[in-house]
Design goal:
Blueprint (H helix, E strand, L loop, with lengths): L1 H9 L2 H15 L4 H28 L13 H25 L7 H21 L4 H17 L9 H11 L5 H21 L4
Helix pairs in contact: 1-7, 2-3, 2-5, 2-6, 3-4, 4-5, 5-8, 6-7, 6-8
Length: 196
């Protein structure tokens, strides 16, 4: 249905990643000029560049989101995984090289790299729902960064699941695995870094 397509588009994993990063910078205790630099970098590196790469590859005939019948899609998505991994690694490298381990942006970037590597590795062989994974990561980041008062965002997860099932983009197991991967990575990263 059209409503399910709107939901899938609005809660696109790339868009969710941008919001997670912006929220993490907002809550990180850093001088304004550094935060402003991060806001601009996130919008360009995580927004504009992936969007242009996406347009380039879709113009060339690549398909990154299709029904379950198109088995080739989960291999073509590795292109986007690789791009997001490279960008996130560059951002993390900037923090490490400048010795500015601002939290929670540092934890979000470490968790983001772990999530991309895990989901990308699994998705090469079996299609994991990145929508489910990212909405789960998004919800957990909001709760971990801003507090338990953000718990109602949990209801976004079944809405995304419904949309992806209606559009026949995933099975229930692909949605479930995407969610579980994000729960493990988000909680594991924040626990390992002493934030929970």
């Amino acid at each position: 249905t059209r409503f399910a397509e709107y939901i899938s588009t609005i809660f696109n994993p790339g868009i969710m990643a941008i919001f997670i990063l912006l929220a993490a910078v907002y809550k990180s205790r850093m001088p304004f000029y550094i935060a402003f630099g991060w806001y601009v970098a996130i919008l360009v590196l995580n927004g504009l560049i992936p969007f242009l790469v996406y347009l380039f590859f879709t113009h060339k005939g690549y398909v990154f989101d299709d029904t379950l019948h198109n088995k080739k899609v989960h291999r073509e998505r590795v292109i986007l995984f690789s791009l997001f991994l490279a960008i996130t690694a560059i951002e993390l490298l900037i923090l490490v090289c400048t010795k500015m381990f601002y939290q929670p942006i540092y934890a979000v970037l470490v968790g983001g790299i772990a999530a991309i590597v895990l989901a990308g590795s699994v998705s090469y062989f079996w299609k994991v729902s990145m929508h489910s994974s990212m909405i789960t990561f998004f919800v957990l980041m909001l709760i971990l960064i801003f507090g338990l008062s953000w718990w109602p965002t949990i209801f976004l997860i079944p809405i995304i699941w419904w949309a992806r099932l209606v559009l026949y983009r995933h099975t229930i197991w692909q949605l479930f695995v995407g969610m579980i991967l994000s729960i493990m990575v988000a909680l594991g990263t924040f626990w390992f870094l002493g934030l929970i």
